[in-house]
Amino acid sequence: MGRGTVAEISLGAIRDNVKAIRDALPDGVRLMAVVKANGYGHGAAESARMAVDGGAERLAVAYLEEALDLRAEGIELPILILTPIHPADVLQALRHELMITVAGADWFDAMRKELGGKLPGKLKVHIKADTGLGRLGLRSLEEWEALVPWLKADDIEVDGFYTHFATAGKADTSFLERQYVRFQEMLGWCAASGIQPRHCHCAGSAAALRFPGLSMDMVRIGAAMYGFSPAKPSLEIALKPAMALKSSLIAVRKLVAGESLGYDNSYTASGEEWIGTVPIGYADGWHQGLRHAEVLVEGQRAPIVGKICMDQLMVKLPRACPAGTPVVLIGNQGGNCIAAAELAMHLSSVPQEVSSSLSPRVERVYIS
Questions:
Q1: Which listed CATH number (3.20.20.70, 3.40.50.1220, 3.20.20.10, 2.40.50.140) goes with 11-226?
Q2: Annotation says 180 is catalytic
Q3: What's a GO cellular component annotated to this UniProt protein (predicted)?
């Protein structure tokens, strides 16, 4: 039976979100579904299959091992690895027909030295350009010019050229606009060098939904396919949350005024209070930063009290409730709702951190 703490994943919601975005994109724009980090906590293979059903043409992951796991699950769609792989792993990428990200000439130099010769097939690469996020990618014309000779080898195919926006969710679009202008300038380097990438992409979920004009010929949809929407999207799409997190009370006790609970006596009752214990804690990804969040019990909001423990947390109940009473941490109950976006505010973060932080200890239950 387990402890009864489960993340319910609606496969239909993922599929429908992808389809709704796919249908709303400008003509000729492809959709790359991002299923990294175990599908943002929703399950990578399951999310990939629903993305295919929803009309995605390509997939993206962060690391080589994530792509290999998808191939082992029978996923055949083209997959882009967003983080440069180790040069020694290039043969695995070729063998499994994976596209890789390259950010500089040094990678090619190391790869050629590692292999000592020509590749046994054509390697598809996407060039990552750093236009302002400051994470990965080439930045200067000199770096580009050093890269060009490697890209012109007959065993290399430049399948894509891309960047990522740093402020696509912010109301102030000035930095995003500067990044886009910089990206267009870098695309000019490609043309001047005689290199024509098959695809150019710069828009993730927030940019694609807020600024369809930045779609170019492909968009990378991650957060939105799981129902996480940016503020004030231009594309009028009703995204469906794909995850609900549910548990139940495993213990209930009454405190009187002045009694404390939790590590470091972190909560003291102000009067007679009913306290319930829920079997989920920071080892499950329910961070200490959520100690002032709420859960739903009998359709009412119940605040978390005291420090969150490794395996459990405590909540102040609206009334005496028996052990076994259902608890909703993300989702709907009795006409009330707690969304991942609300929880993210407690962490000064984004909803996808909440979902992707849930550890494998939390059972995923898939609902079709």
A1: 3.20.20.10
A2: no
A3: cytosol
